[in-house]
Amino acid sequence: MRIYLLLFALLFMFSCASRNIKYTRDKVLEKTYKDYHVFLNNQKVPFFPLLFLDKENIKNTRINKRDKTVKIEQLKKVELLNFKDLNLDSLAVLPLKWKELNLIIIDNFLMHADFKEKIKIEPSAIKNIKYITHDKMHTLNLCGHYHGNVLKVEIK
Predict the structure, then answer these.
(1) Beta bridge pairs of residue 19
(2) Degrees (nearest 5) of the Cα angle 5, 8, 9?
(3) How many angstroms separate the most distant Cα atoms in the chain?
(4) Is 141 left (phi over 0), alpha (psi -120 to 50) or beta?
């Protein structure tokens, strides 16, 4: 009986509620979206689905089930940019006007352009930026019923 009790105590003490995982944004969103609090370099992230990080700059991602926290540490602490502050005019062939932008697609995550003030992005995470005008959307047959301009951002 003592052996079973000792084994149970050891198992209970050594089982850990926190574990390290390899950072993938989708995995963190899937496991932690509703109940967990996300910290980036020990600072709380207000709304994780609007945060886009560079995978290559992630040192450690730890999920703690007891505290319901996710702690993400970066290799090099980089200041995150507000999406609205990105200088997209220099990247676009046509003059880009934020007021005419209706939809933003970041890493296949659709959001209305009203969220551009809340989106935070790591500059090194951006792989590609495309500005798709309303006319081009209809000629490419991407979305025949959508009326407006789209900004598509691909993340590494």
Answers:
(1) 63
(2) 85
(3) 77
(4) left
Say if CB 50 and CB 118 are below 8 A apart.
yes
DSSP string, 42-53: TEEES-GGGEE-
Tell me the helix, strand and coil percentages in the chain, rounded to 5: 30, 35, 35
Question: In this predicted model, what pLDDT tens digit does every residue of 38-75 receive, in sequence order?
Answer: 899 989 988 888 888 888 888 988 888 888 888 989 99
More confident call, 105 vs 8: 105
Q: Where does the pLDDT of residue 83 fall: very low under 50, low under 70, confident under 90, or very high at 90 and above?
A: confident
Measure the CA–CA gap between 112 and 139, rounded to whole angstroms: 22
Q: Which is nearest to 88 in space by CA: 137, 50, 121?
A: 121
CA separation for the pair 6, 22 (Å, rounded): 33
Do 96 and 88 contact (CB within 8 A), yes or no?
yes
Q: Are strands 149-155 and 101-106 parallel, antiparallel or unpaired?
A: parallel
Residues linked to residue 58 through DSSP beta bridges, in sequence order: 74
Residue 10 token pair:
């050891």
Does pTM surpass 0.90? Answer: no
